[in-house]
Amino acid sequence: MDATTLIDDVIDREGGYVDHPADRGGPTRYGITQSIARAEGYAGPMRDLPRQLAARIYSRRYWQAPNFDRIASRAPRLAGELFDTGVNMGPAVAAGFLQRALNALNRQQRDWGDLAVDGAIGAQTLRALDTLLATRGTAAEAVLVKAINALQGERYLHLAETRPANEAFLYGWLATRVDAPRV
To answer: Is the pLDDT of residue 111 over 90?
Structure first.
């Protein structure tokens, strides 16, 4: 799946204007929060945020900046999962999930050394991913997607347990964001 399709899908899933009282993000349109829109130079009402601007924001902030585009050339399903997780939890959280999973899969550092879980995908993270894909074969990508989903689901449960207002979102998060891929 290419970035344009991923972005169109997330915009369609996020829907139009929302201002849920329990959402700390405040007003959103197409899943873009007001603070992100303002940081991108949009000064108009959130109800009027253009879809094309939302798509550019997703491409720049949630695909290119965290280097998910570099993951896509190696493991496209993983890149799609990281993008979707990054949209909902922040790209650094998604990248940190990948780094944690790679650390846990390095067979006690026999395949590569532990990565700093810094939420930034750079040369070391990409080398570790390349090594995993080369040593574990075609199933490795699906295993990583499962690991990202497991971490994502646990985080959603934690968010609902520690902030009861988030219970309003838990069912939807689990229903639409956490997916079990086939190996």
So the answer is: yes
